[in-house]
Inverse folding.
């Protein structure tokens, strides 16, 4: 097993490069920007349809009134994502372009919207003669238009980049104000992008008779169907755990490939429920958030409880007690790095296997027993058992699924945990040289970072207020360190103010901070963030797994870590 892990680690640079692909990241970052729309709109669907479980039905008029905010927000999700994805991709291209040749991201966003409409909508008309009212259809402006939205964003930004690099633009005299001059500069790339979309629209309609958005869904439908099968979901959710196990944020690689499928399926499930039919689509955001990653990647919901209740080693009991609360809310880095589970050969099999068995069990309940799949969107920090119950409309069978998943995950992890616990217990009892050396190294590292064995020095270098942004993948783990810093700052009267953020939603706010600390799961993005940080004159530092977790648990060490980082350049 050790040799297998060693071989897997050799593949890490390739997967890290893949996770930094600007197009995959643009899809993920673009979707993160649109997430408030999804969260907002889902509330109304829960209000409208969950009461049906208890036999209560709103009148058609009341339902129409309740779901209108959903229609006017989620109903144009594709249009919104075309703009946010274009903005994210524009930012990635701008990092590679000279400061004097930056793409105008407002223009790329507007152009992407227009391109998306050409690819996704159809002209409609009502009335006759002088009473004709022209418009365009909205059927593919929502989740059904997501694939077209990504294509629209890519076409737009690639065209803008090509024109900028080749100086294809209308240049105005120097006397013309910059804002007016910029408008003329963007005319040619805007026109080219729209012309390409118009050409695609004409060609696709000539061959298929439908819009590009509809045609691309029909083309990928066999792939969607295959992905919903037992083998497909095993590959998808097993891959997320596999990448995380070797220290790479798995969703950064996998999510962009399944985002469109997941939201299409969730919308389809909701439509089926509205029509009184069985919601049978499997791959949805809820399947990932609450089934495959019940308690976080690796389906680790039960793991802290195993450490805490069944562990005989003091170390494992302490790790379990420190991590069971955040893991219950899907923030499982404390157990991933504190256990550790990541890159720990003992846990490789259950870490990859448990999510696969979880999604298979859920699929069996949906397809064989007849439970409805996920039809409602809930934020990922929702505790997994609650997410399963609410996301499936409080279906009675969902309670059975929750109990079964917890039991199965506990059975899968338990024998491997016992092996690991015996190893740690033996080390604790023997207090051998290896453990002594490791403790010495840890102590040395703490002294190097904070001085005085990790204690905050009485003479802090921080005199003026310092703002710190902690970044992780979803603003969960980053909150742990931000809280520790704020607690230490208050206790030791040091002028440090810390905030937590999610990678992908950081670019608008990072200029407001003096220091950015990267949590381990986003360290692979260090080089890209460094370019923005240097441009904004913001210090940037990355952390390692155990180091990060230890800082979240020790406000004094966390505060001294910041003190030391800021002092290095003084």
């Amino acid at each position: 097993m050790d040799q297998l892990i060693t071989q897997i680690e050799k593949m890490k640079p390739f997967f890290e490069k893949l996770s930094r692909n600007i197009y995959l990241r643009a899809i993920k970052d673009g979707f993160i920007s649109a997430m408030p729309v999804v969260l907002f709109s889902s509330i109304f669907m829960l209000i409208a349809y969950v009461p049906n479980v208890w036999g209560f039905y709103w009148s058609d008029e009341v339902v129409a009134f309740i779901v209108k905010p959903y229609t006017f927000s989620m109903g144009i999700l594709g249009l919104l994502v075309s703009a946010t994805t274009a903005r994210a991709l524009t930012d990635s291209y701008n990092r590679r372009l000279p400061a004097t040749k930056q793409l105008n991201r407002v223009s790329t966003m507007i152009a992407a919207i227009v391109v998306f409409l050409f690819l996704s909508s159809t002209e409609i008309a009502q009335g006759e003669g002088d009473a004709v009212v022209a418009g365009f259809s909205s059927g593919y402006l929502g989740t059904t238009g997501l694939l077209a939205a990504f294509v629209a964003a890519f076409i737009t930004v690639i065209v803008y980049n090509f024109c900028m690099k080749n100086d294809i633009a209308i240049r105005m005299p120097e006397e013309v104000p910059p804002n007016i001059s910029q408008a003329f500069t963007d005319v040619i790339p805007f026109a080219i992008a729209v012309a390409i979309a118009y050409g695609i629209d004409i060609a696709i309609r000539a061959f298929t008779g439908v819009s590009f958005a509809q045609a691309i869904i029909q083309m990928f439908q066999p792939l969607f169907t295959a992905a919903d099968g037992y083998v497909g979901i095993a590959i998808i959710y097993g891959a997320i755990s596999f990448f995380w196990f070797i220290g790479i944020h798995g969703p950064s690689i996998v999510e962009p490939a399944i985002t469109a499928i997941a939201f299409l399926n969730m919308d389809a499930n909701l439509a089926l429920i509205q029509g009184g039919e069985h919601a049978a689509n499997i791959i949805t955001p809820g399947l990932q958030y609450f089934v495959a990653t019940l308690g976080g990647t690796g389906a680790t919901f039960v793991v802290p409880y195993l450490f805490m209740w069944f562990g005989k080693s003091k170390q494992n009991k302490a790790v379990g007690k420190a991590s069971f609360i955040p893991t219950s809310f899907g923030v499982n880095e404390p157990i991933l790095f504190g256990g550790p589970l990541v890159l720990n050969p003992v846990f490789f099999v259950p870490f990859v296997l448990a999510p696969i068995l979880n999604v298979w069990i859920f699929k069996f309940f949906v397809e064989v027993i007849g439970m409805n799949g996920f039809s409602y969107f809930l934020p990922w920090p929702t505790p997994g058992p609650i997410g399963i119950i609410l996301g499936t409309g409080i279906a009675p069978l969902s309670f059975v699924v929750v109990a079964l998943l917890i039991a199965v995950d506990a059975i899968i992890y338990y024998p491997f945990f016992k092996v690991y616990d015996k190893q740690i217990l033996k080390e604790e009892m023997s207090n051998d040289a290896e453990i002594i050396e490791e403790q010495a190294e840890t102590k040395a590292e703490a002294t190097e970072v904070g001085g005085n064995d990790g204690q905050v020095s009485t003479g802090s270098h921080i005199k003026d207020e310092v703002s710190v942004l902690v970044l992780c993948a979803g603003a969960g783990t980053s909150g742990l360190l931000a809280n520790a810093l704020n607690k230490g700052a208050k206790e030791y009267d040091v002028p440090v103010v810390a905030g937590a953020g999610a990678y992908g939603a950081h670019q608008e706010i990072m200029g407001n901070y003096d220091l950015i600390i990267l949590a381990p799961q986003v360290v692979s993005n260090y080089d890209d963030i460094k370019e923005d940080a240097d441009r904004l004159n913001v210090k940037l530092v990355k952390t390692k797994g155990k180091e990060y977790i230890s800082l979240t648990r020790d406000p004094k060490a966390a505060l001294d870590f910041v003190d030391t980082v800021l002092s290095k350049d003084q």
Remarks:
- Confidence is low (pLDDT under 50) at residues 443-458.
- The first helix runs from residue 2 to 10.
- The longest strand covers residues 466-472.
- Strands lie at 123-126, 133-136, 466-472, 496-502, 515-518, 539-542.
